[in-house]
Design goal:
There is one protein chain. The protein is of the alpha+beta class. Helix content is about 20%, strand content about 30%. It has twelve helices and 39 strands. The strands form seven sheets. Strands 6, 7, 8, 9, 11, 12, 14, 15, 19 and 20 form a ten-stranded antiparallel β-sheet that branches. Strands 29-28-27-26-23-22-21-31-30 form a nine-stranded parallel β-sheet. A hairpin with a 4-residue loop joins strand 7 and strand 8. The longest helix is centred in the C-terminal third of the chain and has 23 residues. It is globular and about 85 Å long.
């Protein structure tokens, strides 16, 4: 619900549990008034006060008054160079050489439905579910207009934000910074939680109190990155899973981003999130419009758990466009960890032949099927089938796999090229590289200039021909290096600052064409695992390979951190062979299956090498997952423990929306002598209902939540346990 009070000049955005308010203040400056638990109404700006603050200058309109300064008030969209010295949201380079921006309120409009963004991912929905607020700000001297867009999804406590910048003048203006979200607080006693890591260890939570100055996470790698995720949380110092105020902010963007929080001299704080200003500038000719990516916020007055569950619902229902919506996705087998690139058609069929009777439904052919791809030094960019490996082409192999009763999937890496390829020999200028410099190589490959339409058209034409040649149901889209030497032969020198962003727009355009031409194909995103796990890619790829690390113990932490924003149904997770390829750790197959069920679920191993006992475990795991998939993927998710605290176990839970069933999963840590007796408190149940646990007994939801369930002593390292609760 969006309300405008003309007398108070306030815009109030109500969701189910929260309220957000902004106010048009003196001199038509738009101030932020409130964001927190839902309130009944009224002007919430009354605590804001004016005072003479030394070295905080005053707007020209204030004349000789010293008590009004942009430096001391919470801004709705912070400016640059005109008195607010904190983190700016926008920076302009004007024809005069000035880099200031002074934005004043002009008008606002409320309408039904959700705004859309040109060429960018965004939440979507109809007039019944969404409302939009459009606020127009103007810098009269620069003749630049800024439209602030807000989308409100009341049921999910979701508020989205986006920005359009228009050059309304007659001279060219350069945009040097353009954030999507600015959020001010008249307090700084908050913690900032970010999600950091590395390749094979992504999205590990890091929590620290705000301190005077700026704390930030960002990416300049050309992708959202393994190292820092474009999702952060600001919260009360004592906030936890079940209590305390917390605000999660997600940027729907797959390239360079910046999320920065500042605690200022007056113990206020500000969060700014959006495009990274590193190597960014955008030329706005007269009449041109620039659209910044969408950001999404969820405020929870009741801790991290509620915030996560609201994000999960919104992402599943109003962000992802899934060709399998309403259907259970197939359980897959991928051969990569069994063969890497060293395979033949007969070898792939041998791996697949036992899969159907074990309950597996989709066979995925990974890297190595195209061009002269004998190792990772050649072939990228030449998207035609290597018939030495696959005699008769792709269709011959697909027909053999489908004859076994399985669907077929294929791996691609469209953004990359090897120097040892027909494509590079013909078009070396199609790779990103700076004139006069030798290229940096990652995995012995270069990055194609996806900012260019001709490059995208060529690659898309090749891949479309391959996909059209056989019955393909699934694509794994990989990206295995970061961007360097970011320079495009297609742009003049004064527009090279646009390449990073144009690259991401090109990726989105390519993904949209795949969805348009092959609407039945399920696309799984990947960037060396979780290097591009963000809301932007989820708009095009309903699931993303969570990490190249499939070790079950490490995955407990990776999937835990990922769950703070992203739903289980988006996390690519598989059972792999042991010793694990990354950690060399050996864990029970039962444990590997329980952990992989906290995701899309599948297998990465050579089934022909499995023992009869292991095959029986696969058969039982796939049957269990299929039976409970709806509960796991669509139920409410609860984190029952924190794996980073090295406790005796890691536990999590899925609860149906009607609270009539729940699935609790648990993995122990290393076993130690004289173990204590442990009791696990379950969450999210209906206290008035009675539940059977694994088909036995009868306990009230109230008792199971308050007293808990006595855990058996599980001897051995990394043992797994699952409890299925069903209401009587």
């Amino acid at each position: 619900m969006i309300l405008y009070d003309a007398q108070d000049k306030t815009y109030t955005l109500h969701t189910k549990n929260t309220t957000y308010q902004m106010k048009v203040w003196d001199y038509n400056i738009l101030l932020h008034a409130y964001y927190g638990p839902r309130l009944s109404g009224g002007d919430l700006s009354y605590p804001l006060r004016c005072a003479d603050r030394g070295f905080s200058p005053n707007p020209s309109e204030a004349g000789t008054s010293r008590t009004f300064s942009l430096d001391t008030f919470p801004q709705e969209y912070s400016t640059c160079g005109v008195g607010d010295f904190r983190l700016p949201s926008i920076e302009l380079e004007l024809p005069s050489g000035s880099r200031t921006a002074d934005l004043r309120y002009v008008s606002g409009e409320v309408r039904r439905g959700k705004y859309g963004l040109e060429g960018l991912p965004a939440f979507y929905g109809g007039e019944e579910e969404w409302e939009t607020l459009s606020i127009l700000l103007r810098d009269a001297a620069a003749q630049v207009e800024v439209e602030l867009l807000y989308g409100v999804r009341e049921e999910y406590d979701l508020i989205t934000r986006a920005v359009r910048v228009k050059n309304a003048g007659n001279e060219t203006v350069r945009l040097c910074r353009c954030a999507s979200l600015c959020l001010d607080f008249v307090r700084s006693d908050l913690d900032l939680i970010t999600f950091n890591g590395a390749h094979v260890m992504e999205r590990c939570p890091s929590r620290a109190p705000l301190r005077p100055g700026v704390q930030s996470v960002d990416s300049v790698r050309g992708a959202s990155s393994h190292q820092h995720n474009p999702f952060v949380i600001l919260c009360d110092r004592d906030a936890n899973e079940d209590s305390g105020l917390c605000i999660g902010a997600m940027l729907l963007y797959s390239g360079n981003f910046l999320a920065a929080a500042e605690a200022d001299q007056f113990e206020n704080s500000r969060l700014v999130m959006g495009l990274n200003p590193y190597h960014f500038s955008w030329t706005l000719e007269p009449g041109a419009v620039f659209t910044a990516p969408e950001a999404a916020m969820v405020c929870s007055p009741c801790g991290f758990g509620q915030m996560s569950r609201q994000f999960h619902k919104a992402i599943r229902k109003d962000l992802i466009r899934d060709p399998w919506a309403g259907r259970r996705k197939p359980v897959l087998i991928n051969h990569w960890e069994a063969t890497e690139m060293y395979f033949t058609a007969d070898k792939l069929v041998k791996i697949a032949q036992d899969a159907p009777e074990l309950g597996l439904e989709l066979f995925v052919m990974d890297d190595g099927w195209f061009g002269a791809r004998l190792d990772d030094n050649a072939g990228l960019g030449d998207w035609f089938v290597n018939e030495n490996k696959l005699p008769g082409g792709l269709r011959a192999l697909v027909d053999r796999i489908k004859a076994l009763g399985m669907e077929f999937g294929i791996w691609i890496e469209p953004e990359m090229v090897n120097e040892d390829s027909d494509l590079y020999r013909a078009h070396p200028d199609w790779a990103l590289n700076v004139p006069g410099r030798g290229p940096s190589r990652g995995r012995n490959q270069l990055v194609l200039d996806f900012s260019r339409q001709d490059v995208r058209d060529h690659i898309y034409g090749q891949i479309k021909a391959v996909l059209s040649s056989a019955d393909v149901s699934y694509i794994k889209w990989d990206m295995n290096r970061s961007l360097t030497e970011v320079w495009s032969a297609a742009l003049p020198a004064d527009r090279q600052g646009e390449v990073y962003h144009r690259y991401v727009l090109g990726v989105y355009e390519f993904a949209e064409r795949l969805r348009r031409d092959f609407p039945h194909i399920l696309i799984e995103g990947c960037s060396g695992g979780g290097g591009r796990f963000d809301g932007g890619m989820l708009h095009y790829t309903p699931q993303i390979w969570c990490s190249d690390n499939t070790d079950a113990v490490d995955r407990l932490r990776i999937q835990y951190g990922t769950s703070f924003c992203y739903p289980v149904s988006t996390m690519g997770a598989h059972v792999s062979a042991v010793p694990n390829g990354v950690s060399k750790r050996i864990t029970p197959m039962e444990t590997r299956g329980v952990v992989a069920m906290h995701g899309t679920f599948g297998y990465e191993m050579d089934l022909s090498k499995c023992t009869p006992e292991e095959k029986e475990t696969v058969r039982r795991q796939t049957a269990f997952f299929k039976e409970h998939c709806d509960l796991i993927h669509d139920g409410d998710y609860y984190r029952l423990s924190d794996p980073f605290r090295n406790g005796p176990y890691t536990a999590w839970e899925h609860v149906s929306h009607d609270k009539r069933e729940a699935l609790v999963s648990l993995v122990t840590g290393p076993f130690r002598g004289a173990p204590p007796f442990l009791t696990l408190r379950i969450k999210g149940l209906d206290p008035a209902l009675r539940y059977r646990v694994n088909g036995e007994g009868s306990w009230s939801g109230e008792v199971l939540m308050q007293v808990g369930w006595p855990l058996p002593i599980l001897r051995g390292d990394y043992q797994a346990l699952q409890l299925y609760l069903e209401a009587e």
